Amino acid sequence: xxxxxxxxxxxxxxxxxxxxxxxxxxxxxxxxxxxxxxxxxxxxxxxxxxxxxxxxxxxxxxxxxxxxxxxxxxxxxxxxxxxxxxxxxxxxxxxxxxxxxxxxxxxxxxxxxxxxxxxxxxxxxxxxxxxxxxxxxxxxxxxxxxxxxxxxxxxxxxxxxxxxxxxxxxxxxxxxxxxxxxxxxxxxxxxxxxxxxxxxxxxxxxxxxxxxxxxxxxxxxxxxxxxxxxxxxxxxxxxxxxxxxxxxxxxxxxxxxxxxxxxxxxxxxxxxxxxxxxxxxxxxxxxxxxxxxxxxxxxxxxxxxxxxxxxxxxxxxxxxxxxxxxxxxxxxxxxxxxxxxxxxxxxxxxxxxxxxxxxxxxxxxxxxxxxxxxxxxxxxxxxxxxxxxxxxxxxxxxxxxxxxxxxxxxxxxxxxxxxxxxxxxxxxxxxxxxxxxxxxxxxxxxxxxxxxxxxxxxxxxxxxxxxxxxxxxxxxxxxxxxxxxxxxxxxxxxxxxxxxxxxxxxxxxxxxxxxxxxxxxxxxxxxxxxxxxxxxxxxxxxxxxxxxxxxxxxxxxxxxxxxxxxxxxxxxxxxxxxxxxxxxxxxxxxxxxxxxxxxxxxxxxxxxxxxxxxxxxxxxxxxxxxxxxxxxxxxxxxxxxxxxxxxxxxxxxxxxxxxxxxxxxxxxxxxxxxxxxxxxxxxxxxxxxxxxxxxxxxxxxxxxxxxxxxxxxxxxxxxxxxxxxxxxxxxxxxxxxxxxxxxxxxxxxxxxxxxxxxxxxxxxxxxxxxxxxxxxxxxxxxxxxxxxxxxxxxxxxxxxxxxxxxxxxxxxxxxxxxxxxxxxxxxxxxxxxxxxxxxxxxxxxxxxxxxxxxxxxxxxxxxxxxxxxxxxxxxxxxx
Length: 879
Description:
Radius of gyration: 34 Å
CATH architecture of the largest domain: 2-Layer Sandwich
CATH superfamily of the largest domain: Bira Bifunctional Protein, Domain 2
CATH topology of the largest domain: BirA Bifunctional Protein, domain 2
Number of strands: 35
Helix content: 25-40%
Structural class: alpha+beta
CATH class of the largest domain: Alpha Beta
Distance between the termini: 82 Å
Largest sheet: 9 strands, mixed
Number of helices: 24
Strand content: 15-25%
Mean pLDDT: 89
Shape: globular
Low-confidence stretches: 437-443
Number of domains: 4
């Protein structure tokens, strides 16, 4: 077996399948594009769904890739096991309706065992198969796997619910008895069991069935191959390491962490080296995630990054590392991965700065979390309780980043335990919420055999034509090809078309289809790309359409014109954002409609008013400069080198690309329709800016007529405001508004001062009425006041020590409020404010609670206050 570096192994895998006619698909961004079912790209096949479900037919049905992935569903196992990681690489080879078992099994065996490739000992390989899949079992035997190394296991069937599924075959490598961590008779001591000896290397899925909503399984029209080989595991085997963390993918990071620690040294055989592993894993994950545009935040992907950084920081503290340090590991990650992922090194300054800021922010949060934990511990001690509530432990984990084990350690130091079952319940509820929000993470649609089989050539000629004559080549009704259609919904493919199919954020054209006499026979409501690339027209038919007849296709010219203008505006805005916000700003989505445009970009900070004005000024100046908008079709490498063209939002491009150039200001790859000259846009105005997700902001804007109407409406609102303010000139509105704000603040201050005086007067009256109940001095009164006033009075009572017990009722705005306060002496005799409030709150149709010394309740029945006060007295009598 060869001893190779991780870079050599990755390259060898891709080279091997390239010799088998596969196209190497570059690793996609970790942030999924146009896939709301995924939080992260989490497998090699995730970015290839469109090929497997038949939405798009690839140019080459044989594909191979090394795909960076993130999975955080079992984050708690990272560092505790030999191979759990949140970031990993999946090597894969894929067949989209091309080869199948007879090809892929011999290839897998060849790559693993051939002296030209990995040169593994075939006698150390085991394979698991689905019991009914006798063909796979036979093929493994034919290539040279011994019969007693071919296991039949019922679990070897890949099925995620509705959609593609089928049997699979896993390949295991026997690392030898020295790695055996189980007794010989342990039921898990076999290839496929939970053990350290037999390590899974590769999984080959034979995707041959469709799992229907009815539960039935039917054969797929096109059978596919989907394989996955974890690079980190493979490297561990070839480099002979105990775990993944001693390989060249992790060890340089761990070595640097050693130098930052208080003298600790990593040893794979020591249990307390979990922190080293966690830091090394999380450093890789956050470096790549931030590099791909995901930024720390409180939701979605940003929350995952924030959580990983915090876990790393806490584990750094366990190694004696105080202060920000994770950002220092970014260059190390970049160096390790540079041969295939140069983007980390290219962006190391930005990535490091982002992580460092988050580390500093966490230092403040950590102190808040410790304050909360100390408060919880003090409360438990005061009340002679021994267990930290599961909900509190989860809050410390979820909000402040405290791992359960950290809370447990603090608790044990104080002689306390943690309700771990309650913690797990809260954790599962959060996971369920996340699953419900995202849907099926592995979802994949079923193939549309009819559309996949249509290979009729169709040419888009809409860049230069709004209407043409074309021949109708295919009619699809209810997923079947027909010769003609008289009425209703249908899908049509013509030999050529002026209708733009929705792509790259630009909406599809609308318009009509006419017979040669000029009569409209169908309305085009949408246009999409068919699996083989044709523009497929979604139409409502009003008169008979026949296959192979000629028709006139006319787009809605006004609709297209406005879309063209807004699309050009997105290019200008894209470049302007890079100037105003920073070069690292990149597009994260867009929508180009006739009435407006929206543009999403990566940023953790809202645009300021000054930045918005600057953006508008830049774009409008380009409009007023009347710059010609040029388009050119070029080989992709020439477009990159000579033109310096950049890609818009992770689109996939072929060998030949269309370049849209606006002077030397903006040069983009783009297949959309555009204005001929920037002057056609007329005017540009940003209408809104907002956050739409973790680290993603959205700008909405209008051009031309819509921009004029927007500004006109804003002017009307300003004029109406001026009239209401009794201001004669619009320029005086800001000063008048500022004066009104100051006047309002002064009135509020006066009002608050009056409330304070009234509260003092009410206090004097209320606190004079003291009753003796069961040897307690009790003040129990109801007044017309809100909860804030009652709390103020309770604070004054506490300072004055006016009685042993205070029970106040208040009514305001048709709501009832209750406050109970109890002195230390009364508490010592068993009176608890929280207990009293719970018993009397029902009288006002409400609920509440609090501490032994202070509690409150709110309700919707002010009429019940008298009964509540009387009930409070009765309760006090019982002590």
